[in-house]
Amino acid sequence: MSEDRRRAVLRAIVEGYVATSEPVGSKALADASALGVSSATIRNDMAVLEEEGLIAQPHTSAGRIPTDAGYRSFVDNLAATALQDPHKRAITTFLSDAVDLNDVVERSVRLLSQLTRQVAVVQYPSLRESAVRRVELVRIGADRALVVVVSADARVEQSTVALGDAVGDEEFERVARDLNEASVGRTPAALLASLSDWAARPGQVAWAAPVAEAVVAAARGGTVERVVFAGAANLARAGADFESDAIGSVLDALEEQVVLLRLLHEMAGEGQDVAVRIGAETRTDALARTSVIAAGYGPGGDAVSLLGTLGPTRMDYPGTMAAVRAVARYLSRVVENE
Amino acid sequence: MSEDRRRAVLRAIVEGYVATSEPVGSKALADASALGVSSATIRNDMAVLEEEGLIAQPHTSAGRIPTDAGYRSFVDNLAATALQDPHKRAITTFLSDAVDLNDVVERSVRLLSQLTRQVAVVQYPSLRESAVRRVELVRIGADRALVVVVSADARVEQSTVALGDAVGDEEFERVARDLNEASVGRTPAALLASLSDWAARPGQVAWAAPVAEAVVAAARGGTVERVVFAGAANLARAGADFESDAIGSVLDALEEQVVLLRLLHEMAGEGQDVAVRIGAETRTDALARTSVIAAGYGPGGDAVSLLGTLGPTRMDYPGTMAAVRAVARYLSRVVENE
DNA sequence: ATTAGCACTCGGACCCCACGAGTGCCAGAT
DNA sequence: ATCTGGCACTCGTGGGGTCCGAGTGCTAAT
């Protein structure tokens, strides 16, 4: 069946191009790979693949390179690759002596960028599903207070809130104790109900409402969904895959965060274990020449938070996917135990 | 006095090169600038400047470009430039509606990178000088606790600590209350003394010592001195000033943080209002082609924390210095009022 | 269905040369 | 003592032309 061989040719082209970053020609393929057919046959297959839009030639007298669709097909027909052993060991040794959640995230993102030699992104584990362990109200001025929410998974979220008017010390202390009682042990969803009740109690102080709001917001995961990066330098090293102002656009998009977060969320909704967006599939101009590989992680395997990598479309998909998958699994375990 | 004119020539060379990124020749200088002398005279001056090591030619038949020493001389002979008016307004409007310290820092770093079109760095205001407002001890497991320190300037620092052994609930609560009392209102310096006393009290629980340590560390500014970046893309856009793997090294150095922090601290010690390190003066290989401009900021003008920018040596020094100075002043004011 | 052979294409490397910006220096002017 | 005009020289850049070879598509033979 020649269909099979054509897939094999595509695979060989992708692998060759990824390895050398040069277009691969029919002769080179016939010599190097174990396809066992002549270059002429490969040329015919290539013609078909080009017809199907999976490969293209940069110019008439050059070899072929995969198109976005070609990478897509390659990725879809991929048997899950196991992570290399040394990498496996790296994950455990590197992450096992992390001391707190910050540290875990920090180490993870660095590790992931080193394993994949690409830009790595890790979103902080979301509080969404974890109960509130404690709420602290600390005054930082006559009419302002700091709300600190500590969650069961040892995260701390803070925000400041205006009380609207000067508030006496005893009153402040009393309400703070009260608030804590009304909040502890509840998930964000339950909080919403219980705190709006609390703020509406007869005799409740006027500034209870904004405070309650701030607590709920903080419990939901803070005002911002934080993400952390590492390995931006790998972009610059990607060499000929970008001209330098394209690197600039990508770095801008990374700093934006919001674009990337939206993308990651979309990808998480797709339900696979590891999601891949290739080139234009990112639906983002600045990322048109990059691919994003993402996976969710969270306690019990619920994909409540996200991590992933970003790099030029010409990347080692199997290896990167394996690394992302492995780090996501490991992080899930860690978050569970914390 | 020809010495004066020579300075003017150097200044014109620096300004011309910064503006065009091309070596400037004697004829262009004679035509464009208001020096009022012929190109031959300028050539003579150039010869002297080259002798002094302030300028160089990339190749025999090209104009001159400033050396690191040339930039240094230029900067040292600089009258302080006022910030452009639109920029001034940008600072106030952009920063005035920040809601909390995080937000202030976040906005500042972005603003600074936009004003200067370079990479901006802002170190989080250090707790060093501000008293502790509250210490919370929250258990997050049978034998682990989370230490949260809230400072008078509304910062929250956290770290986890191992208790060494399972601890009963009442005991835990009692010690937590105790700890809070022993800490509140003290500066980190005073804390060190008072908490080691506290931990050494007769009858004190065994796990008091590690907890006390964690509190002191957190009060000192957390386990890490955090810095935050913006504008990495500006590096990539700097065009011909870097080849792309040099960008990579710089990005690496930025992620390292520790290198940059050391450098900033050194610079802060120099006592000027705005400190400048040019090229090799950074004493850091990765930054050999970049300059760093830094200023301290803090309540009451005490330079307890740092901010600055980093960019190619070929940069607009007066403008960048003005922007750094202005943002540092503004931040000082904000921190003071918080 | 595969292969060998062949004519054809075309980008990249190489060479060569002319151009011109820029220099250093010297002799004369101020 | 300082500046200027002039001049010969350097050398990097850019344009134009040529050649080479990798790679292709097609066709005829297996």
Estimate the mean pLDDT confidence of chain A.
85
Q: CATH homologous superfamily name of the largest domain in chain A? A: GAF domain
Q: If strands are numbered along the chain, what order do they take across the biggest sheet of chain A?
A: 7-3-10-9-8
Poorly predicted segments of chain A: none
Written as H for each helix and E for each strand, in order along the chain, the element string of chain A is HHHEEHHHEEEEHHHEHHHEEEH
- Specify the CATH class of the largest domain in chain A: Alpha Beta
Radius of gyration of chain A: 26 Å
Largest interface: A-B, 37 and 37 residues
- Count of all domains of chain A: 3
Helix content of chain A: 40-55%
Oligomer: homodimer
Task: Describe this entry's structure for a reader.
- The structure is a homodimer of 338-residue chains.
- By secondary structure, chain A is an alpha+beta fold.
- Chain A has three domains: 2-76, Winged helix-like DNA-binding domain superfamily/Winged helix DNA-binding domain (Arc Repressor Mutant, subunit A, Orthogonal Bundle), CATH 1.10.10; 85-127 and 224-336, GAF domain (Beta-Lactamase); 132-219, Enolase-like, domain 1 (2-Layer Sandwich), CATH 3.30.390.
- Chain A contains 13 helices and ten strands.
- Chain A has helices at 2-20, 26-32, 39-51, 68-76, 85-96, 101-116, 169-183, 188-200, 208-219, 232-237, 244-256, 258-268, 317-337, and strands spanning 55-56, 65-66, 119-123, 132-139, 144-151, 156-162, 227-230, 275-278, 290-297, 305-312.
- In chain A, strands 7-3-10-9-8 form a five-stranded antiparallel sheet, sandwiched between helices.
- In chain A, β9 and β10 (305-312) form a beta hairpin.
- In chain A, α6 packs antiparallel against α13.
- The longest helix of chain A has 21 residues, at 317-337.
- Chain A is elongated and about 90 Å long.
- The mean pLDDT of chain A is 85.
- Chain A binds chain B through residues 99-100, 102, 133-134, 136, 138, 140, 146, 148, 150, 152, 154, 156, 158-160, 230-237, 239, 244-245, 247-252, 254-255, 338, and chain B through 99-100, 102, 133-134, 136, 138, 140, 146, 148, 150, 152, 154, 156, 158-160, 230-237, 239, 244-245, 247-252, 254-255, 338.
- Chain A binds a DNA duplex (30 and 30 nucleotides) through α2 and α3.
